[in-house]
Prior knowledge:
190 residues; globular; binds zinc ion; six-stranded mixed sheet; Rossmann fold; 28% strand; transferase; alpha/beta
Amino acid sequence: MNEAEVRQLFVDSGAIMEGHFLLTSGLHSPLYVEKFQVLQYPEYTAKLCAALAARFVNDHIGLVVGPVTGGILLAHEVGKNLGTRAIFTERENGNMTLRRGFTIKPGERVLIVEDIVTTGGSVDEVISVVRQQGGIPAAVGMLVDRSGGKVDFGIPSQALLHLTVDTYTTEQCPLCAAGKPFTKRGSRKL
Ligand SMILES: [Zn+2]
């Protein structure tokens, strides 16, 4: 899948919505991304994860790890393609950790997967967990990098789709200036 095909899949499934959105931050945006609109289709999730896994076939990956919630699905599907185990991290008292008896073998090469990366904070935390367990964080695989290319994990990374999402204050918003009403979130593309 090339980048245009990935974007089309997100748009067709309603995961990328275009309109005039009021974000929880109070800022306005012409784009809203709801990853589970695409991940709700197992067929699409499988396609995306196969494309993501293909980027790492030569990296001698022994384990795939993702943070809850989307990371569970991604790790499972990418791990299936790479023929590895797939586990996930979750928060306990605010700290990212492995639970459920999950372990990482010393020296195991680990691929970290995440659905949408904005600041990269969760991925950084997963990388720390991998290191604490004695594993080697080998690479990061993302479905969507919406950081505008700003994220740097200190290890190789790949994204299927790069998105730049503009945000505006009410005063600066060109959509407000154009008198465009807000789009109700959760509705399909208008
Ligand atoms: Zn606006």
